Structure formats: structure tokens, C-alpha cells
Amino acid sequence: MDDSLRIDSVDRQIVAQLERNARASFAAIGNDVGLSAPAVKRRVDRLLDAGVITGFRATVDANALGHGVEAFVELYTSGRTSAIEIARVVARIPEVQDAYTVTGDANALLRVRTSDTAHLERTLEELRTDPAVLQTKSCVVLSRLLPGA
Predict the structure, then answer these.
(1) Residues whose CB is less than 8 angstroms from the CB of residue 47 and which lie 6 or more positions away in sequence, other chains included
(2) Are 78 and 121 part of one and the same domain?
(3) How much helix, strand and coil, in percent to the nearest 5, is found in the chain?
(4) Same domain for 45 and 73
(5) Beta strands in the chain (DSSP E)
(6) pLDDT in 10s for each residue of the chain, 149 residues
(7) What is the pTM of this model?
(8) 126 in a domain, yes or no?
């Protein structure tokens, strides 16, 4: 991101609107923030060029796609396994939706989506086949309390 870029309150409002609905029209956003559609487009383009906005995405209903089981998995690795190596390990597992290095005992925290618990078990077994992975600890999500991605 460009450190010289000045982000004002209108830019923040535009970003917040796009976070809520990436498909909102520039006219609709402009109506809410008091700008014309071309002025909103110029600001969005500037925010994209500066790396403030890094992309747009669709949020989907995982249940509708047959991935009704969500789990958070603590990943424990051997020795001084680097973040790059952990990324290599988890990138090959399509069920891993998000992966983070974290503080605490675990080396990484993964968000995993599977079709059912048997699929989750197979996914965990696949993770553990990598020599760098010592163990996993899982928490299965029962319900989502706040809306999110």
C-alpha cells in the first residue's frame, strides 16, 4: 500500500459499503456518501491502485454447495517449520478455506469446510500424512453467531 495515500472518511465509507456488498453500484454508493457515480469510481480506482482494496469476492452459502461441516483446526508442526512450509502443506488440501500462523502452542489455525464428519476425518488424516505435521486439534462449528464470510 502507498504510505502517501490519504484515506479520508468518504473513502472509509466507500470501503465499508463495498465490504457489505461488493456488487453495489457506484451510483448507489455515491447516493449514500454524497458523491456522483464517476467520483466514486475514481476513488475506488485509486484505492485499488494503492492496494487498499485488493479484490472483490462472492460470499456463498457453503451448505448449498454441500460443505455443511465447518471446523477450526489447530495445526502443530515439527521443529522450526516456516510459515512458507506450512502454507505449502495446507495449500494442497482444498478443504482448507483459510490458514493463519498464530501465537500460542499451535503453529497455525485452519478453517476447514467438508461435506460431513467422515470427510472431515479424511481431511485431517491427509493433513497428518505430511512429515512436518505432528498433530491436529479440531473444534467443529455448531452455529455461526455473527454474519461473516
Answers:
(1) 7, 11, 14, 15, 53
(2) yes
(3) 35, 20, 45
(4) no
(5) 69-77, 96-101, 108-114, 133-140
(6) 545 678 999 999 999 999 989 999 999 999 999 999 999 999 999 999 999 999 998 877 777 887 899 999 999 999 889 999 999 999 999 999 999 999 999 999 999 999 999 999 999 999 999 999 999 999 999 998 987 65
(7) 0.73
(8) yes
